[in-house]
Amino acid sequence: MTDDSAFSAALARAAEWVAQADGLLVAAGAGMGVDSGLPDFRGTQGFWRAYPALGRARIAFEEIANPAAFRADPALAWGFYGHRLDLYRRTQPHAGFAILKKWAARMADGGFVFTSNVDGQFQKAGFDPARICEVHGSIHHLQCAVPCSDAIWSADGFLPEVDAAACRLRGAPPRCPHCGGLARPNILMFGDTGWVGARSEGQQVRLDAWRRRVGRLLVVELGAGLAVPTVRWFGESLGVPLLRINPDAPECGLARALGLPLGASAALAAIDALLG
Asked: How far apart, in whole angstroms, are the C-alpha atoms of residue 254 and residue 198?
């Protein structure tokens, strides 16, 4: 069998899996947003291309995406996260999101999203917020940097003005409404012992309850990397058919797994064309 015929056979099998499923679990990593124009911070050099000011200072992603950064230099930490918050607010989800939403709507038990992304793109694409599990939190929610309590609140009222060239917040950072101290994104960061995880834990409970009642569950994993393999491990742990869509690391050793070496938007469009 030639590579082209093997690839065509894989696409056909993927379409069969989608057609036969009762429920769709979308497992999404950073690569899901690439087709929308979002950076995925692949490698230190890739991160520094996206944030040259941090590159000049030799500050790695793991250092700025860290509670210690908020203690050491709040304006720099909020310059980074404020820029991301504004970027995610302005970004429109690519066409693949609508395809996944359409597939889920056709299935008896609908769909659910499990994502390590903090960008809120699934909500923006019209997915039910009650059926999204953001395992690492969300940049659209805030918490106290201490934290002084388990409170989590919306970031909608915070409109960051960032000096992009210096990666620094120009105005005042958001404050905790309870103690008046510095607020930070409700995101699980590197070296994070102060993350308030109650919101994500509640989402996980809803996801577990949903998937237990699905008869024929299909996991469609998109853009989940190896550096932080939370999403890959979760999909592999469920013991159900797994469709892995990843242009760089589509391999999976499970018996009921299928890998497609494509980006998210291209793969979903190709499968959808076969579904008719």
From this structure: 32
- State the pLDDT confidence band at 1, using cuts at 50, 70 and 90: very low
Contact assessment for residue 218 and residue 240, using Cβ atoms and an 8 Å cutoff = yes
Helix, strand, or coil (residue 106): helix
Are 218 and 110 contacting, i.e. CB atoms less than 8 angstroms apart?
Answer: no
Q: Examine the pLDDT at 40 and tell me if it is beyond 90.
A: no
Question: Rounded CA gap, 32 and 61, in Å?
Answer: 19
The Cα–Cα gap between 3 and 45 comes to 33
Instruction: Outline where DSSP puts E strands in 61-215.
Output: 111-115, 132-134, 137-144, 153-154, 162-163, 168-169, 183-187
Catalytic residue IDs = 136
Rounded to whole angstroms, how far apart are CA atoms 112 and 207?
7
- Please tell me the predicted confidence (pLDDT) of residue 3: 74
pTM: 0.95
Query: How far is Cα 271 from Cα 19, in angstroms, rounded to an integer?
Result: 10
Torsions phi, psi of 176, nearest 5? -70, 125
Residue closest to 135 by CA, chosen among 182, 205, 65: 205
User: Which 3 state secondary structure label does DSSP give 162?
Assistant: strand
**What CA–CA distance (Å, rounded) separates 25 from 113?**
6
Q: 114 by DSSP, 3-state: which?
A: strand
Tokens of 96: 């693949």
Those residues whose C-beta lies under 8 Å from the C-beta of residue 162, and which sit 6 or more positions away, are 79, 82, 83, 86, 168, 169, 170
**Residues 166-181: what's their mean pLDDT?**
97
What residues contact residue 269 under an 8 Å CB cut-off, 6+ apart?
A: 95, 96, 99
Cβ contacts of 5 within 8 Å, gap of 6 or more: none
In degrees, rounded to 5, the angle at the alpha carbon of residue 162 between the alpha carbons of residues 35 and 178 is 105
